[in-house]
């Protein structure tokens, strides 16, 4: 019976190299992650159906490009689309394929390598995320959490000026006003904090009375642009929450102790 490495060398050996590593056969592909690392795949031979996998390296690489361990709903949907388009299964963070015989091995290797490459390319989406896309992610989170909200509400401050609020939520225990602070530019982080402070201070009359609202400054800390001074500026006029900790954010909205 022809071995996996012999089949690789016979069919696509000009571009791929193959070596046995413990219980796996490592297949080195010609594809690269955006930082230049080589995309390796691993074949685990079995009696009837072999398993081809990236051992989770594609999603691990993608996760290392951001400060947060949490993928957005949009990114998860894109990964699902990639798997569907290439006929790949996502299992425990690994891209996997079943290979039933050596005849289909070359095709399976090519498909899985392309799926790994497309997954890594989501890095460009992470790099180019705009303020609006982060606000969209927050909206998706509120929808998934079944938290009623209004988006893009304008309230009149004590100064008579309109102050724009990203979300106004209402639950049985509390109602909240939320401002999303997101930027990829360190130099603009302070100006966002300044504007948030000015808005919360001007709207302070909404924090008193029998129907008092809580103010939440939601920092997109997936970008390493914020300083302690930015947090300190808005801490006295609002509750600070971080987008990398959605469970804490949700508890605050509900009125539970985070």
How would you describe the overall organization of this protein?
The chain has 258 residues and is of the alpha+beta class. It is 38% helix and 26% strand. The chain has nine helices and eleven strands. It has helices spanning 4-11, 57-63, 73-86, 105-120, 123-127, 131-144, 186-202, 228-235, 246-254, and strands at 17-21, 24-32, 38-44, 50-53, 89-91, 94-99, 149-156, 162-170, 175-181, 214-219, 239-242. The strands form two sheets. A six-stranded antiparallel sheet has the order 1-2-3-4-6-5. A five-stranded mixed sheet has the order 7-8-9-10-11, with helices on both faces. It is elongated. The termini are far apart. The model has no long low-confidence stretch (mean pLDDT 86).
Summarize the structure.
This protein is α+β, with helices and mostly antiparallel strands and 258 residues long. It is built from nine helices and eleven strands.
Please identify the oligomeric state: single chain
Poorly predicted runs of 5 or more residues: none
**Arithmetic mean pLDDT:** 86
Shape descriptor reads: elongated
Task: Classify the helix fraction into a percent range.
Answer: 25-40%
Number of strands: 11
**Distance linking N and C termini:** 60 Å
Helical segment count: 9
What portion of residues belong to β-strands?
Answer: 25-35%
Strand order in the sheet with the most strands: 1-2-3-4-6-5
Rg (C-alpha, Å): 24 Å
- Give a short account of the largest sheet: 6 strands, antiparallel
């Amino acid at each position: 019976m022809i071995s996996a490495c012999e089949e690789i060398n016979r069919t696509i050996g000009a571009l791929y190299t193959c070596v046995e590593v413990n219980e796996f056969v490592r297949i080195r592909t010609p594809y690269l992650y955006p930082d230049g690392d080589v995309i390796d795949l691993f074949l685990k031979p079995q009696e009837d159906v072999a398993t081809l996998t990236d051992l989770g390296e594609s999603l691990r690489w993608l996760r290392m490009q951001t400060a947060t361990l949490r993928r957005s709903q949009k990114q998860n949907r894109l990964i699902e689309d990639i798997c569907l388009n290439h006929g790949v299964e996502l299992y425990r963070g690994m891209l996997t394929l079943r290979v039933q015989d050596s005849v289909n091995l070359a095709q399976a290797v090519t498909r899985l390598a392309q799926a790994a490459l497309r997954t890594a390319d989501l890095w460009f989406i992470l790099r180019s995320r705009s303020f609006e896309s982060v606000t969209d992610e927050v909206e998706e989170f509120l929808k998934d959490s079944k938290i009623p909200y209004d988006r893009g509400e304008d309230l009149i401050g004590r100064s008579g000026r309109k102050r724009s609020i990203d979300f106004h939520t209402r639950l049985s225990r509390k109602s909240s006003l939320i401002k999303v602070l997101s930027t990829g530019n360190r130099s603009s982080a302070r100006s966002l904090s300044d504007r948030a402070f000015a808005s919360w201070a001007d709207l302070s009359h909404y924090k008193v009375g029998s129907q008092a609202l809580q103010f939440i400054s939601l920092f997109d800390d997936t970008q390493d642009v914020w300083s302690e001074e930015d947090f300190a500026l808005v801490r006295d006029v609002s509750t600070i929450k971080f987008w990398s900790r959605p469970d804490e954010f949700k508890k605050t909205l509900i009125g539970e102790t985070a």
